[in-house]
Write a structure and sequence with these properties.
Layout: H1 2-48, E1 49-54, H2 56-65, E2 71-75, H3 84-90, E3 95-100, H4 109-115, E4 119-121, H5 124-140, E5 144-147, H6 166-174, E6 178-185, E7 195-201, H7 217-239
Parallel strand pairs: 1-7, 2-5, 2-6, 3-4, 3-5
Antiparallel strand pairs: 6-7
Helix pairs in contact: 6-7
Length: 240
């Protein structure tokens, strides 16, 4: 019996040590992301494109709303690196990104994505359930996640594609705010080699306080989706 108790005690100590090491490694990665990787990306992007960011006050409001909970940052998908605009708006906060699951298997890019804990979007019903579970866990841990509600990339597109409902289900189910960021391609100057983009941070949107089991849940999700879509569409039309 004493040997068994000693074995259980060793297991418990090993588990505590493992948990401590995982937390330490997570903190190290967060610091590397915030103070090395993110500044590097933000320094490189202007070499490829002129970017003007407006709406920093709205980003600050989102920070206040997410001091004790997670949140969703929603961007339209009009450029390969448009997720970088969220870095500009919320730096030095650590952000989490999503990607197609098959991208995690790519030789170099997959290793980079895995290192930064990118969440793979798998196809099929089971894959969607796993993705929702992973997203919910991150949000409950207080993480901010960047999502593209359009789903597909359309390079330098000036009109929004229809939004999928997945991000808005997450927002309502986990009761986390949404920060919309609209990327607006600007007319290209005939003498310029770089494209120009206006990234506008819109006011954060708080989801309605409703339970998944309530009768009006689906209607609330659709209303939230339509509200964010309208906000972003209006800004794109104003610049167009």
């Amino acid at each position: 019996m004493p040997n068994r108790l000693m074995f259980i005690g060793c297991q418990s100590a090993a588990e505590r040590w493992r948990t401590c090491c995982m937390k330490l490694w997570s903190n190290i990665k967060s610091n590397v992301f915030s103070f090395a990787f993110a500044p590097l990306v933000m320094a490189v992007l202007p070499l490829l494109m002129r970017v003007r960011l407006v709406g920093r006050d709205n980003a600050q409001q989102y920070r206040r709303l997410t001091q004790t909970r997670g949140g969703l940052v929603l961007c339209n998908h009009t450029y390969y690196l448009d997720g970088t605009f969220a870095l500009y708006a919320l730096w030095p906060r650590r952000l989490w990104y999503t990607t197609q699951a098959e991208n995690l298997s790519l030789p170099i890019a997959g290793q980079i994505l895995s290192f930064w804990d990118a969440v793979g979007i798998e196809r099929g019903k089971n894959g969607q359930k796993k993705f929702n579970d992973d997203m919910g866990k991150l949000l409950r841990e207080g993480k901010s996640i960047v999502l593209y509600p359009e789903g597909n990339l359309r390079l330098f597109e000036k009109e929004l594609q229809p939004f999928h409902k997945g991000a808005f289900h997450l927002a309502v189910r986990e009761q986390v705010p949404i920060l919309p960021i609209v990327a607006i391609p600007l007319p290209r100057r005939w003498w310029g080699l770089r494209r120009s983009m206006r990234a506008e941070v819109l006011p954060p949107v708080v989801p309605p306080a409703i339970s998944v089991d309530d009768d009006g849940y689906e209607a609330a999700v659709e209303e939230l989706r339509d509200k964010v879509f309208e906000m972003m569409s209006v800004r794109m039309a104003a610049e167009g």
